[in-house]
């Protein structure tokens, strides 16, 4: 018998669930993915800039080498060729620049010694503090970090305010989308150990080389459609009913039937669906997730008359701006003056600010002015650059706020309703709100559906294997 599965939500979690289930073939699983918007991809989306004709991502998304399931996901769909992979970061600070690159010749965690040593803006004592903090994270069981914020744990482990601001905040705020004063310590441990300390490839940076709307909204979606997935766009799900028998999924236009449902919608959207379940834990159980707070991320899009750096991306230290990304190819703007047609090159740059709650009350023009001054302070070429136009995009629900309290609220894949499963980066995957967490959640939900119908579930892609020396150093030894 063919199992009928409906996936509600076409973001990365929903796409990953559909891709995983589609491997079983149309004779075993009939999959329908319903997306409320006109395009799939969810928060990994883009907008059209009418002035240039460019398609621009709302906010720059990056993955890291430790994101094994996300990388496997894009490889299975032949999308990895649309990523640029970098094996080093450049930290730019008032006193100059520092190259952060893990050694491929020295076993972890000692492979980071040179990278830390090259952070010239840190004093020798601060470098020692950072090294001690990483070592303590390796030796601390995750259970000992619960109920602690990252900053609380760091202060308890000899990290002073200057060290936290100059190193830990620089890494963790961008990775978690939340400040260390609020972020859960166990989430910070995940970033530092899995993202840097455990494997030489973990800190590689994967940057999409095409707009996210093309990458996931079109190409990934077309791939799962070729695998037999029925994709329905522009159809918000209003009601999901379960009494005696299959699920009834109602949209504005029709009603559909499913034997299993994967709800792959964000935490703040769960209560917008009327969950009419056959037990007392229906709507009330789902609405509790509206108490999960969100954290904003701002993308500041700048079109300049010249490039201000030759680097593809830069991590900024001690500034409001956290990341700068540069599009290597300039567009050409044509305009006429009398009978003369002139061509003006236009260079696109994007600044990313995570955990953007601190700038919520600032006007967009004031924010752009502030950021442009920071860029002029860091990049000599920016001092004479002309800002041709700009756009500020802030998503107040970019990620969930990964506080210790929220970590306790994150649900498992299973729900109290038989046959209904959850997916989304907010589900308890062991990862913070990342593309990796989204893909893992979709695959985890797909595995539970497969088990339900007597099929062998597809396993998660294993993490990068830590070396023997790392295991000896760490608490896992």
Automatic annotation (TrEMBL):
Gene Ontology molecular function: oxidoreductase activity
Gene3D superfamilies xref list: FAD/NAD(P)-binding domain
Cofactor names: FAD
Keyword entries, A-Z: Oxidoreductase
Residue ranges annotated for the Amine oxidase domain, each copy included: 12-449
Positions with a binding annotation for FAD: 237
EC number: 1.3.5.5
Source species, domain of life: Bacteria
Keyword Cytoplasm in record: no
Enzyme class (EC, first level): oxidoreductase
Pfam families for the chain: Amino_oxidase (PF01593)
NCBIfam families: HpnE (TIGR03467)
Name the UniProt record assigns to this protein: 15-cis-phytoene desaturase
Species for this entry: Crateriforma conspicua
Gene: pds
